């Protein structure tokens, strides 16, 4: 959850993008949501460490490709798991390569395509602020494409071994997650309570030693069974 002690305080967002027009557009979009507050913008990854200390964002919305310190390096620089550390949501163009996979491996909790429906961008920031990971169905399809293009026999074997650790129900949820479905959508699809979905996904992450559902989706996509 956002770090503020007041339950109605808005989620604090830091936008990181070297494209001034794109950054302004994202800032204006997030400004339409009463529960989100853009506290600053960085045009270079090198500015992020100082911005984290001075602006204390809850969520960093970060472009993948930037001159100098890129988005992957930004993710690696964030002290993941420490109290008060911001969560990083990546932004990428549809035709970029799988560099976003490096960001996910480094700790990014999700990613968005830059031309997503504006409502999905707002909802994704909310989900990330609430402790969830976020990637849309379109981003999920692109994720699968990147993973398939970059797969290796060893990576696929490792992914299949991880899937073998799951119960039948956990496997069902894991495979369905690759579509970009939310917990609520998974619950409706399998006719179970949303708490059942959350519990199963948490159990999978524990078994696999991973942090978020985007990393989970990468492993399933790499297995080739989704």
UniProtKB/TrEMBL annotation:
Response regulatory domain mapped to chain residues: 12-129
Alphabetical keyword list: DNA-binding, Phosphoprotein, Transcription, Transcription regulation
UniProt cross-references to InterPro entries, sorted A to Z: CheY-like_superfamily, NreC/VraR/RcsB-like_REC, Sig_transdc_resp-reg_C-effctor, Sig_transdc_resp-reg_receiver, Tscrpt_reg_LuxR_C, WalR-like
Stored SUPFAM superfamilies: C-terminal effector domain of the bipartite response regulators (SSF46894), CheY-like (SSF52172)
Gene3D superfamilies per record: 3.40.50.2300
Domain called HTH luxR-type: residue spans: 159-224
Positions of modified residues (4-aspartylphosphate): 63
Protein name in UniProt: DNA-binding response regulator
Organism: Microterricola pindariensis
């Amino acid at each position: 959850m956002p770090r503020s002690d007041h339950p109605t305080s808005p989620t604090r967002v830091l936008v990181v993008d070297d494209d001034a027009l794109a950054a302004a557009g994202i800032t204006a979009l997030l400004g339409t949501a009463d529960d989100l507050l853009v506290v600053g913008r960085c045009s270079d990854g090198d500015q992020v460490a100082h911005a984290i200390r001075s602006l204390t964002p809850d969520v960093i919305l970060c472009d993948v490709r930037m001159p100098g310190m890129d988005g992957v390096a930004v993710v690696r620089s964030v002290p993941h798991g420490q109290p008060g550390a911001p969560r990083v949501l990546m932004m990428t163009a549809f035709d970029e390569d799988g560099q976003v996979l490096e960001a996910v491996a480094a700790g990014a909790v999700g990613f968005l395509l830059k031309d997503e429906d504006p409502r999905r961008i707002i909802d994704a920031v909310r989900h990330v602020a609430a402790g969830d990971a976020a990637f849309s169905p379109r981003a999920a399809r692109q994720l699968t494409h990147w993973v398939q293009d970059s797969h290796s026999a060893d990576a696929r074997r490792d992914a299949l071994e991880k899937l073998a650790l799951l119960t039948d129900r956990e496997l069902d949820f894991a495979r369905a997650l690759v579509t970009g479905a939310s917990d609520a959508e998974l619950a409706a699809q399998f006719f179970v309570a949303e708490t059942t979905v959350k519990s199963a996904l948490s159990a999978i992450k524990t078994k696999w030693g991973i942090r978020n559902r985007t990393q989970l989706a990468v492993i399933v996509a790499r297995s080739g069974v989704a």
